[in-house]
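Lesson 9: reading folded outputs for more than one chain in a single document. The general rule is that every protein is listed as its sequence immediately followed by its structure tokens, and records are never interleaved. Here is the first one.
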Amino acid sequence: MQKILIVEDDEKLCAELEIFLNNNGYEVESLKNFEDTFSSILNTKTNLVLLDINLPNANGEYILKEVRKVSDVPIIIVTSSDNELDELISINYGADYYITKPYNIQILLAKIEAVLRRAKRRSKASRKT
């Protein structure tokens, strides 16, 4: 079972996402403490991260940039910021997708599945070489 880490400070949204993703066959963990979000992401064995930009004690774009220096874990930005500059920064820092809230949950699921399929193919290809 593939694991998704939710890094979202909106507790209601986070709980709804957890239920939805669990019901769609994923193991889900969410951060409740944002003191050291960067280390928490790296220390969690996960197949994909859903990362908000506006977090307490942290900036999601900065976290994304730092994670990309040491990890290729797929990251989808899920944020209320519909600012094109934030989207551009996130994509340039290595986000796999940028999704603005409110979003269609089925489209989010389709993007999660697409990113995980690509990551699996990359993993298989790298083992063959």
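And here is the second record, again sequence then tokens.
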Amino acid sequence: MTQKVALITGAARGIGLATTRLFLKSGWRVAMVDWDGAELTSASADQNDVLPIECDVSKPDDVEDILSKTLNAFGQVDALINNAGVADFGPIEETDFERWRRVMATNLDGVFLMSQAATPALKETKGNIVNIASISGLRASTLRVAYGTSKAAVIQLTKQQAAELGEYGIRANCVCPGPVRTKLAMAVHSQDIIDAYHDAIPLNRYGNEDEIAEAICFLASDKASYVTGQILAADGGFDSTGVGLPALRKP
């Protein structure tokens, strides 16, 4: 049986790298896409059955290159994981158009471009798309006018993909991570913010990258063969509880 192939964007670190490793553990081959060449080289160095591709998903020419290289190397795409994203937070009044477009270009345009380019290959395999949005796309919070709006748009785009591509046997689903204990998050979250998140999350803790990867790989697997158009919040119950964090609302 031919090994399945996952094409993962934002694969050099964090959730993307954890997802890469889980797919490899499950016997898949993986095309690892990232715009950070140094990190990508480091992340892929000790991995077998991977193809590192340094490209920017917000650029149409780069996207075509990604698909071409993946198909030349592996011959197929069974799952597209749209994970690449920019986390740029700031108040509405300080979010100029340049900042807005920078976030939208990667977080939304990149998902659209990658999905559109991969559709012919996914038709051949009756494959699937898993888009990575965020809990910020499900519930509003401070400082996230561009980020949250981009992720809410990804959620709607997922439903659109499911509606239009289902007739080809292509499934499309979306994972919305809640607070995840990444190196970046721990570097910028003060103790007040950490405590506030713990108080607001029913499971009373941050998630970890492997837990989000498990959700992604499930939706991409045959175990989810009748699941499409769904939005899965992997968030410790955060979306089911109150609004806002006092530590983030302080002037």
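What the second record shows: Residues 97-125 form the longest helix (29 residues).
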